[in-house]
Automatic annotation (TrEMBL):
Protein name in UniProt: Probable S-methyl-5'-thioinosine phosphorylase
Additional notes on this entry: Although this enzyme belongs to the family of MTA phosphorylases based on sequence homology, it has been shown that conserved amino acid substitutions in the substrate binding pocket convert the substrate specificity of this enzyme from 6-aminopurines to 6-oxopurines.
Residues noted as binding phosphate in the record, renumbered to the chain: T9, R51, H52, T185
Lineage, opening ranks: Bacteria, Pseudomonadati, Pseudomonadota, Gammaproteobacteria, Oceanospirillales
CDD domains: MTAP_SsMTAPII_like_MTIP (cd09010)
Positions marked as site (Important for substrate specificity): E166, M220
Binding-site residues for substrate, renumbered to this chain: M184, N208, P209, A210
Amino acid sequence: MTLAFIGGTGLTQMQNLIQHQRLELDTPWGRPAAPVVRGELSGRPVLFLARHGDPHVLLPHQVNYRANMAALKQAGATEIVAVNAVGGIHSAAQSGVVVVPDQIIDYTHGRETTYFDQRNGPVTHVDFSWPFDRALRERLLAVLREANLPRLESGVYGATQGPRLETAAEIARMERDGCDIVGMTAMPEAVLARELELPYAMLSLVVNPAAGKSHTEITMAEIEAVIHAGMGAVCELLATLVAR
Ligand code: HPA
């Protein structure tokens, strides 16, 4: 088993990862955002990919998700934990809370969402009723409980197109839809993992109240401060996860 991590905003490099190799990979869908790092965490071999590039240059809609996921599979990943920064919609999803979502609603558009679009390939519709791997989620939840971090053990992730943040009305609609958190990267990443038959789960760090959920504007400074305070704990958590 080789666990791979995808780092999002605020996690372009994992401080506690010992790097052995940076694999410059190419895939039939193009090049991934960055070299795939082959390294060691808690004495175990792991892989790491910076979703937005290293340095972080790609906006969520510019990421070549197909190349990223195919490159991880090519490098030998057998399961994936993706980390991302999100806005909080549910009242329990306050800044600093870590969420392990169990559902997704996809509001993105214009992204390449499948590997099965070759004209001469098989027509395939993957089951996506439960977008995250149950066993991997349980392992994440076990280390979160042990670390006693502020957490939400389930939640609906609303994936928006970005790069702009949402309007207050859009967030109110998403709340009516049942979304608990909002981010820009879970889709199509999660479905591509499913198509590649790679178990996939997510750790979402809430970095701001979603639009209209506070009386102030959402600023990058506010987001960066929460990321700075929270991503260290997320890295520790991942180290505990691989040590199991
Ligand atoms: N909306 C969408 N994506 C985000 C947000 C947000 O408020 N915060 C971090 N990523």
